[in-house]
Amino acid sequence: MEDKISLYELLQAFKKRLLLNIGIFLFVVSATGLVSYFLLPPNYQSSTQILVNKKESGDEQLNSQDIQTNLQLINTYRVIIKSPVILSQVIEKLNLQTTPDLLTKKISVTSEQNSQVVNVTVKDRELKRAAEIANMTADVFQKEISELMNVDNVTILSPAINKSYIKPITPNTPLNIIIAAVVGLMIGVGITFLIEFFDTTVKTEEDIQELVGFSILGFVSPASAKKIRDAREKEVR
């Protein structure tokens, strides 16, 4: 038999094993949906915003210099926010069963380019706890930065919220199901291709010719049982 399988032959094989492919597709999609809904723990995200801006007033030139100074300090603030000096107090005040090293993995501190707003984002399996950690981190940082760097230019702009309408960021069940559908279809096509590729049964006249090495002189057309009975009745008459 030929080792190459044409696209038409593959489509015919896929059609012939349609039930198998549907079964694989439904199994993969269903398993993914069940795992996403019932086995994967949800993870929530909560954020608070900190404004880095000196409160004292002055002329326009001074304000411009202050803004540039604040922008330069933001990178330093990002490091301080995730430092043990801040996080150890957060753990103590919230009575968390963790360490600063583990807590820092849940916290990300970001800021847009040339922006004086710093976002403190916390990911946790409980939305309430994520909001509490974010708010407490901002509070502790605001109090400690004045002592650490002798500045007073931090304001909590927007505290983290804990609302029932906030959905978990992971798992993304609809996306997981879409990916599973594509994977299930690919698995079905792959299995169909492997079955056809390793199938050594004789199916066509060309297969016989290739197998025995002789030219085909003729072939017997298939006949239904009704045609056979009709032919026998004609012979009897």
Automatic annotation (TrEMBL):
Gene this protein is translated from: capA
GO CC, any one term: plasma membrane
Superkingdom: Bacteria
PANTHER family: FERRIC ENTEROBACTIN TRANSPORT PROTEIN FEPE, TYROSINE-PROTEIN KINASE
Region forming the signal peptide: none
Alphabetic keyword roster: Cell membrane, Membrane, Transmembrane, Transmembrane helix
Annotated membrane topology: Multi-pass membrane protein
Pfam families: GNVR (PF13807), Wzz (PF02706)
Domain Polysaccharide chain length determinant N-terminal, first and last residues per copy: 3-94
Location in the cell: Cell membrane
Name used for this protein in its record: Capsular polysaccharide biosynthesis protein
Keyword Membrane: yes
